[in-house]
Design brief:
about 400 residues, alpha/beta, Peroxisomal Thiolase, Chain A, domain 1, 10-stranded mixed beta sheet, 13 strands
């Protein structure tokens, strides 16, 4: 066993598709997305989103927490996935050698919005318990305290690459001998702030998103959480984290480089770390938001790296929506399952290739192909681009 090898021993996932691996598999096999109208808060925007099908009260009850607690929806979704990952790995989180690295982009904004709606602009009104969960680190701290984590605990926030960077950081903690195991990933809950923010950028699709399709016109938002248990112990491993890299092209505050410079750097460097050749990548879980800019940038980067032999690829955001800080964690879990069980996920709503990209994603859920290695992309605002590669042992 190479002491620098990092393995995935447990997984936990929750999204608009469900709260278990089996529910996610059924949704992919049936071509059923999690999309529907916004129900979590009032908004004049009529756009599809992928909400976790559970109220805050239900989540509190399932997790054994008081309904009137000051836990944000973000913290509740994260708690669900972290606990599932730890249980799946049989992990004793109380050890001082076991850490938690979580990530989020909006933190407890859902409760902050309740506070401001209650106050109506009056600083003397509103319940303060709806504001104490505002910062990004709150959800991580609550999960760590509730579960009794004994080791290093921290929070990362790098927009839509957050969870992938959390997994990278967790792997580095193990490689440097600082931790024996780390639960790493990300979580985000839908809120009006997020919906309005993306609406202001004019990149929300009023219909179901169509990543890589010639007619694509924007993304659909989603919520959820995805966490993996990282360890240097190969026993009972689901997959190996073979390579990872982060790059920043700093091209624009929100847009990707049209030539795909950042995505190319992160993919090529992750591939170099893994020691794999481009031909050994069997599937790419693309960032694939469905915006004109992202899909063009990512597609060009894939062609630069793989030439005319681009592997099978698809965007699972056509099912889950773009879950922002959770995306890299949810898609890491899906990538691990792809390696472990041979799953190739369909790209919903794709009909016609974009001539400017010249690539077509897979549109059928497949279980008949040997999957040795999977490359997963997560790209954030400011050009913060991250790539993870998962392989069989």
């Amino acid at each position: 066993m190479n002491p620098k090898d990092i393995y995935i021993r447990g997984i936990g996932i929750v999204s608009g598709l469900g709260l278990t691996v089996e529910e996610h598999r059924d949704a992919f096999a049936q071509g059923r997305s999690g999309m529907g109208p916004v129900s979590l808060f009032d908004t004049p925007l009529q756009v599809p989103v992928s909400e976790v099908k559970a109220s805050r009260e239900q989540l509190c009850q399932w997790l054994g927490l008081p309904v009137r607690s000051s836990w944000s929806r973000t913290a509740l979704l994260g708690f669900w996935a972290v606990r599932k990952a730890a249980e799946d790995a049989g992990l004793d989180v109380r050890s001082p050698r076991v850490g938690l690295v979580s990530s989020t982009s909006v933190g407890g904004m859902d409760l902050s919005e309740h506070f401001f709606r209650q106050g109506g602009g009056d600083p003397l009104r509103g319940s303060l318990r709806n504001i104490v969960s505002h910062d990004c680190g709150d959800s991580t701290s609550r999960i760590a305290m509730q579960m009794g984590f004994g080791g290093y605990v921290t929070t990362l926030s790098t927009a839509c690459s957050s969870a992938a960077n959390a997994i990278m950081f967790g792997a580095r903690l193990i490689r440097e001998g600082l931790m024996d195991a780390v639960v790493a990933g990300g979580v985000d809950a839908l809120c009006a702030f997020t919906l309005n923010g993306f609406h202001s950028l004019m990149i929300l699709d009023k219909n179901h998103c169509r990543p890589f399709d010639a007619s694509r016109s924007g993304l659909n938002l989603g919520e959820g959480a995805g966490f993996v248990v990282l360890t240097s112990d190969s026993r009972q491993a689901r997959a190996r984290l073979a390579g990872f890299a982060n790059a920043n092209d700093a091209y624009h505050q929100t847009a990707s480089s049209p030539d795909g410079d950042g995505p190319y750097l992160s993919m090529s460097r992750a591939l170099a770390m893994s020691g794999l050749s481009p031909s050994q990548i069997d599937y790419i879980n693309v960032h694939g938001t469905g915006t004109e800019n992202n899909d063009l940038s990512e597609g060009r980067a894939m062609k630069r790296l793989f030439g005319e032999q681009v592997p099978l690829f698809s965007s699972t955001k056509s099912f889950t929506g773009h879950t922002l800080g959770a995306a890299g964690g949810i898609e890491a879990v899906l990538s691990v399952l792809s390696v472990e069980r041979g799953w190739i996920y369909p790209n919903l709503n794709f009909a016609q290739p974009d001539p400017a990209i010249g690539l077509a994603p897979g549109t059928v859920f497949r279980t008949d192909l040997p999957v040795r290695s999977v490359l997963s992309n997560s790209f954030g605002f400011g050009g913060n681009d991250s790539t993870l590669i998962f392989s069989r042992e």
